[in-house]
Design a protein that fits this description.
By secondary structure, this protein is an all-alpha fold. The protein has helices spanning 15-24, 55-68, 72-85.
């Protein structure tokens, strides 16, 4: 059985375009290999944390956060969430 080539995803410039595409397209015909899971933060941030760190540790955190493409405060929150949810 010969497999057909998968279509590339179109550029969708609005939520409306995305909704219309998903409603009408057969997603099994498209190459979704470049997609990655995304985590949305819905919970309000109502508590604050103030802590002192060695300068070199904070610098390393900022470098790592930049490499991950996020603000360092969000990166710290992500690391804390991962630490408390690990078994």
């Amino acid at each position: 059985m010969k497999k057909h080539a998968l279509k590339t995803m179109p550029s969708l410039n609005s939520d409306e375009e995305a909704e219309q595409f998903v409603e009408s397209a057969d997603l099994s015909e498209y190459d979704l290999s470049g997609f990655a899971p995304v985590k949305f933060e819905f919970e309000p941030k109502t508590a604050a944390l103030n802590m002192r760190l060695p300068q070199n540790l904070l610098a390393a955190v900022k470098i790592r956060a930049k490499a991950e493409g996020m603000p360092y405060t969000r990166y710290i929150r992500l690391v804390l969430e991962q630490a408390v949810t690990r078994l």
